[in-house]
């Protein structure tokens, strides 16, 4: 029964939940291999592979997360159902998280077998993608839950992502370091890396808690169009 529920939520989450993360990583890997074969060098290909894991995959996850929260139909029906709207959305986001984790693990393992170093190595490599993905996806889910606008949410997510890419030197300062999504690819995994990852994880959990609080309020399920 529980498996049936999860399979149903996987279908309801949509193809993007299962396809967006692997598509983003496959595209990055293809470009990196092209760079390597064109003679641009192993180091440049390695940097691109790392950027795919730390920057491209989290962005794709965030964009899918906001659509899962925003596009839910028949919101008025959820008010009369025994299963909370929060639980339904949570399972769909869980499907997205599981799909992302599987893809990133396979991607990182393949890069390691091919001789590329993506972060500190070992179990800590999980934080290269998990920390920024959690923070950015949680931020996207919160804004989507509050605004019910895919356009506004995607614009804000893209703005933050681009701002941190463009003004990376500002975000590596101690004050903003816990919010810097691209520490590994821009600075490395030396001093300050662990604190940055912990800061992103903690911030992501806070954002998820805030999202849950918003979705738990029945009046947030309805908009003027539903009334």
Task: Name some characteristics of this structure.
about 75% helix, about 230 residues, mainly alpha, single chain
Outline the secondary-structure elements:
Blueprint: H1 2-13, H2 15-37, H3 42-70, H4 75-78, H5 85-113, H6 126-147, H7 150-166, H8 168-171, H9 183-186, H10 193-215
Helix pairs in contact: 1-5, 2-3, 2-5, 3-5, 3-6, 3-7, 6-7, 6-10
Descriptive account of the structure:
- With 227 residues, the protein is an all-alpha fold.
- It has one domain.
- 74% of the residues lie in helices and 0% in strands.
- The chain contains ten helices and no strands.
- The chain has helices spanning 2-13, 15-37, 42-70, 75-78, 85-113, 126-147, 150-166, 168-171, 183-186, 193-215.
- Helix 2 runs antiparallel to helix 3 (42-70).
- The two termini are 34 Å apart.
- Cα distance, first to last residue? 34 Å
N-to-C series of helices and strands: HHHHHHHHHH
Q: How many distinct beta strands? A: 0
User: Which structural class do the helices and strands define?
Assistant: mainly alpha
Label the overall shape: globular
- Biggest β-sheet strands, sense, barrel: none
- Level of helix content? over 70%
Q: If helices are DSSP runs of H or I spanning 4 or more residues, what is the number of helices? A: 10
Number of domains: 1
Arithmetic mean of pLDDT: 83
Strand content: under 5%
Low-pLDDT windows of residues: none
| Global Rg | 18 Å
Protein name: ABC-2 type transport system permease protein
Keywords: Membrane, Transmembrane, Transmembrane helix
Transmembrane segments: 48-70, 93-114, 126-146, 158-183, 195-215
């Amino acid at each position: 029964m529980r498996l049936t529920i999860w399979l149903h939520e996987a279908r309801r989450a949509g193809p993007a939940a299962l396809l967006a993360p692997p598509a983003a990583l496959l595209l990055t890997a293809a470009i990196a291999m092209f760079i390597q074969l064109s003679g641009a060098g192993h180091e440049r290909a390695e940097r691109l592979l790392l950027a795919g894991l730390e920057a491209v995959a989290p962005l794709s996850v965030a964009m899918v997360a906001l659509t899962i929260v925003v596009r839910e139909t028949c919101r008025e029906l959820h008010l009369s159902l025994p299963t909370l709207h929060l639980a339904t959305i949570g399972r769909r986001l869980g499907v997205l998280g599981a799909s992302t984790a599987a893809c990133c693990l396979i991607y990182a393992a393949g890069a390691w077998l091919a001789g590329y170093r993506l972060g500190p190595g070992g179990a800590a490599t999980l934080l290269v993608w998990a920390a920024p993905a959690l923070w950015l996806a949680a931020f996207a889910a919160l804004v989507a839950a509050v605004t019910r606008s895919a356009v506004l949410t995607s614009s804000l997510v893209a703005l933050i992502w681009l701002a941190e890419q463009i003004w990376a030197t500002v975000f590596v300062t101690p004050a903003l370091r816990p919010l810097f999504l691209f520490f590994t690819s821009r600075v490395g995994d030396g001093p300050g890396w662990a604190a940055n990852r912990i800061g992103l994880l903690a911030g992501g959990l806070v954002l998820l808690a805030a999202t849950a609080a918003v979705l738990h309020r029945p009046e947030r399920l309805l908009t003027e169009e539903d009334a």
